[in-house]
Amino acid sequence: MSDDLLLSLLWSVPMAGSLLVLLIPKQFPGVIKWFSLVVTILLFGLTLVAFTKFLSESPSGDVPAASSLRDRAAANTLTGPVGDAVTVGETGKAVGDLVVRHPWIPYFNIQYYLGLDGISLSLVLLSGLVCMLSCLASFSIEKNVKGYFSLYLLLTSSMMGVFLALDMFLFYVFFEVMLLPMYFLIAIWGGENREYAAIKFLLYTLFGSVFILVAILILFFWPGDSVGSFGGAATWTAHSFDSIAVAQAVSETGYYGRFIQQVVFLLFLTGFLVKLPSFPFHTWLPDAHVQAPTPISMILAGVLLKIGGYGLVRFAWPMAPAGAYDFSYYVAALGVFSILYGALAAMAQTDFKKLVAYSSVSHMGYVTLGMAVMVIAGESDPRYYAYGVNGAMFMMIAHGITSTGMFFLVGVIYDRAHTRDLNKLGGLWNVMPIYGAVSFLIFFGSMGLPGLCGFVAEVFVILAAFNYNPTLAVLAAAAVILTAGYVLWTLQRVFLGRSEEHKGLPDLTTREIIISIPLVVLTILLGVYPSVLLDWMNPSIIEGVVRPVTTARALTAAGKAALTPIKTTAIAPQTAR
Amino acid sequence: MSSALINNAWLVCVFPLIGALVTALAGRQLKQHAHWPVVVGIGVGFLYAFTLLLRTPEGKDLVAFSWLSVGDSLKVPIELRVDGLSTMMLSMVTFVATLVAIFASGYMAGDPGYTRFFTLFGLFVFSMTGLVLSGNFLLTYAFWEGVGVCSYLLIGFWHEKPAAAAAAKKAFLVNRIGDVGFALAIFWMWKVSAGHSLSYLSILSHEGLAALSEFDRTGISLLLFWAAAAKSAQFPLYVWLPDAMEGPTPVSALIHAATMVTAGVYLIARSSALIVGSPTAQLVICVTGCVTALLAALIALTQTDLKRVMAYSTVSQLGFMFMGLGAGVGTVAQLAVVAALFHLFTHAFFKALLFLASGSVMHAMGGVIDMRRFGGLWRRLPITCATFALGGLALAGIPPMAGFWSKDEILTALNKASSVANQQGGPGWGVVYGIIYWVAILTAFMTAFYTGRAFFMTFFGPEKLPSPNDPEAEPVDASHDNGHGHDDHGHAGHEVGHESPAIMTYPLIVLAFCAVFVGMIFGPWTGWFEGQIETMIGFHTLNPSEHHGGHEWDWLSIGVGTLAGLLGLGLSYLFYGQPSPIPGRLAKAIAPLYRLSLDKFRVDEFYGLLIVKPTTLLSKIAAFFDTNIIDNLVRLVALMPRLFGRDLLAPYQNGLIQYYAAVTAFGVAGFLTILLLF
Q: Residue A113 belongs to what H/E stretch?
């Protein structure tokens, strides 16, 4: 399968599914459900195909995992002057390296530009899995099945697009498309207060995306000087939405200057922190989670929050490294504060789902912290920063698995006991032993117990933080006590004890067990053998984040990136490998 | 030494794990035989470990696959360390675990959670053996939490009982506090160690230690001790251990007396090459151990719940071990480390014995464990009585029982420390160690006293059996209500007042044999134990004692220690051997002190007030802040468009032509005026 086809299918299969669902008469809800499930299974299969392609040798003799996205992007350069009809891949071997590039709106140099590296692939795999599992979890939806699954597949499609897009304009389009189905899924299929939650989610995210849009436009329009050749253009004068080329120009030449980088960084940061979410932009999350139906909560926690983190990893840091460095301490402190604040707020909740939502705020704090601990100045070894970024990415995957599981488990009990009030639950382990065992494992995974997935992420992040600033690290480490506090207290209130009221509730059904198994297996696998992920994710992180950021830092430290754009023409044109 | 045997030492962990998995998967089919896979798994593990022990390994590191790795710089392999210390610990753990598992198969018979119990039991032994075998601080940390989880699940085994669920949570949380210290110690070590390796070998070797500054050594040592204090129930983090007695008695015997709680001692002993580099840390360890030992012994004096007496006794004995570790200043180092580890070793046998014997009493009494509600049981429970007596003598430190040898070594180390500490630490340190020495002897006296008290109250005096109609029976008081009624799970239909079945008494007999003889077999007489410990990493970097060859007997400690033990036992016989008015009168005479001891010095209440309350309050504040301040700010922002658009500007768009015309006219007039004026 060619790259063109594969990468395009990853977002267009669910899109097509979304349209085809509309053709199925609504008298057959079963058909609609099974059809959607087949679509998501197919999608997950495609992500696995992409994964094998990433790790195996392409016809041109390269292993995508072994070369940086930057090199692969350069091999797919569009040739010819901007604005003309151009052909792809004339300069390099464009087959099999998981990058696709075509002109889309040539006038503005906007491209249909998709690509995968370890960073995005890990999230694409996660999305594929979570979408499949929550599709299965959606089988209990009874109301307007046709509309639900159509929107659901549209949501899936846009999420895939967000992770695939390397062109910032295209990214933004997918990012915005994602909001509408989410809005309707909460507003129509949600709980009692669904309309308020849905509109809050929509407006808040739109508010955040304005910042992102402004940042992208600044990067596009800021009149820097021409700096040699990037991305195939003879002279590179910004006016590009090519995220890879912009990041390269910024890190190697300090193209936009320090001040603009600071502005761009803050804009990106604000926009993506809303999505992540981090304190103080997190209040939409508890509302959205509590009101959303279970499968949508799973998607929301498992995938949507990761888009915020992905944005930080892919855009905020690499495109404005000098700005990121200048604010790193405050961002790290914000991360630590989010961790502690989320944990404390979670402890006070009596609504099971709200508690899990706040625990997401707490865990996403580790992502912010891991990104921010930029130990790259002075005598410190820049490799330490790699642990932070790896930890942040690992946290996203680990949290994607455990929080999906937790929201699913909350949904299971809500379906049966019709309450999420922690004070009304209790004694469920005796009543539902399999459910209890799965819950303990997933919650312990979220708590960061060694041997389960959350632990690895926390170790990496706090280790990097310790090298950055011991005080912040001590605070972040102390948060595990709070985390243990709310997790254990929750488990005690839900599962331990004896309850007459909930006697006779049925244990997990086969469908529910099928949903749990992958989550349980991954929770253990990633904890016991994290290399299964790190081995191929780490090189991309080094190439995609750590190296550009370090290069840029060296440039700033040497005083080359002044407050105004600098003139550099010494950059050699990128040659095809 | 056949290397294949050593290279496969990981099998010792794997056998119990397999046993646990088999029980978990096939438990439903096995029914009342569900304990067999676990018993056999642990038993085979013991045989393997004991074979290793007999071969006296030289010390070897095994590396399996890489666990955590990022690029080339951060690598945490799964590595194991096989040396005298680990094989000794392995043998002890698996031996005691086998016996406790056999005992439990009788004790837990008929419990609806039989399969779950043995699965967790096997998992615990897996984690514990892993902890002991690990050759790497981060891996140790992983197993450290692993035993914590198993302990949590086993304390809360009868989780329908709110007290058990609460105790389980408390144990986990307090341990989690300690884990933070451990984690920080690991990060610190990683940062300063050469090559960023966390393996014992590279940190504790001579070169590894040389790379650390005095500040690093003190900081890391204190953080490690913080972790150890939580796991090994030292002041002020001991509060979880007495509550942990809510778990089934075999669990108390194995986890909360013999093995897991000694993990902290093990960790500090393992790192002794590092700790010795910091006299400050040693003093802190020694003083903390001393305070803990004294405090716990004082509480144990008045408790009426047999298991709680044993629990506080465990806390106190762990304090003794830390006193020993802390005494390793200067030339005493080697002696002190061996003494502490040896006490860990002997304590495991006699304390497991005492717990199991208590369990046997409880079993016979239909779940009642309050010593005021039974008495004079020696005739009805002869084997339990005899084995309890032997265990008690060992705990009291009467020669030639196991406890005597190890306690004596600790006292000797303290005595010597008091004479050399002045040169190592500073002026006055010798006095501090001297005080600790005498407090330790006082504690030994109290230990003998409460041991004797427990024994005489249970087995001597007029025969008394608990019965709900018994006019002597006290009304169910608060401490009882807290929790032991549940221990009669599965004992339904069991006649009260009979000796336990053979499956339970045989383990008692074997352990009693150990309580008598391990001190003589392994102790300073033969030097076997010391010979094992010598292969530990960094042992030879500790300052060797001046007198080499042959054990040096400290007759003062032997004499005073033994005397304290005999006095304590004698006094307890006087008080409790027969019905006597003395204890009651004494209690009245020093009523405030008596109450304080009975109320466990109100440490729990203190924590509740000082930590739990503020934290919950803080969390409430955070939640309030979130919904009422942050979210309202958000809503305020959302309100802005409406305020500006509808409330402020919309009224002007009222659709009246006259109004628009008027505004226009006034506007033009205004502009003209301005133009004319300027």
A: strand A110-115
Asked if B74 is an interface residue toward chain A (Cβ–Cβ < 8 A), one would say yes
Q: Can you tell me the distance from the alpha carbon of A140 to that of A247, in angstroms, rounded to the nearest whole number?
A: 45
Own/partner pairs, B484-489, CB within 8 angstroms, 24+ separation: B484/B305, B484/B307, B484/B362, B484/B367, B484/B368, B484/B369, B484/B370, B485/B367, B486/B158, B486/B160, B486/B161, B486/B164, B486/B367, B487/B248, B487/B249, B487/B362, B487/B367, B487/B369, B488/B366, B488/B367, B489/B111, B489/B112, B489/B158, B489/B367
Question: Is B187's CB within 8 Å of A473's CB?
Answer: yes
From CA A487, how far away is CA A402, in angstroms rounded? 13
By Cβ distance, the residue of A200, A390, A450 closest to B146 is A450
- The span from the CA of A470 to the CA of B188, in Å, is 9
Stretch (H or E) spanning B167 = helix B162-192
- pTM beyond 0.95: the answer is no
What pLDDT, in 10s, does the model give residues B268-285? 998 988 888 888 898 899
Token readout for A14 is 């669910």
DSSP annotation of A190 reads S
Tokens of B276: 């010795």
Two tokens, residue A466:
């310790």
- The DSSP secondary-structure symbol of A546 reads I
Query: How many Å lie between the alpha carbon of A166 and the closest alpha carbon of chain B?
Result: 26
Task: Write down the pLDDT at residue B56.
Answer: 64
In the structure encoding, which two tokens stand for residue B216, read together? Answer: 């690093």
Give the C-alpha separation, B16 to B39, whole Å. Answer: 8
Token pair 């044999």 is found at: B513
Rounded Cα distance between A43 and A163, Å, is: 14
Whether B89 and B247 have beta carbons less than 8 Å apart is answered as no
User: A99-105 and B60-70: which strand pairing?
Assistant: unpaired
Q: Are strands B60-70 and B74-82 parallel, antiparallel or unpaired?
A: antiparallel
Residue B148 three-state SS: helix
User: Considering only alpha carbons, which residue of chain A is nearest residue B161?
Assistant: A497
pLDDT value of position A225: 58
Task: Give the mean pLDDT of chain A.
Answer: 85
Phi, psi (degrees; rounded to nearest 5) at B164: -70, -45
Tell me how far apart the alpha carbons of residues A407 and A401 are, in angstroms, rounded to a whole number: 10
Q: How many angstroms separate the CA atoms of A54 and A306, rounded?
A: 21
Please identify among residues 260-279 of chain A the ones whose CB lies closer than 8 Å to any CB of chain B.
279
A193 touches chain B (CB under 8 A): no
Cα–Cα distance for residue pair A192/A189, rounded to 1 Å: 10
For residue A105, the 8-state DSSP code is E
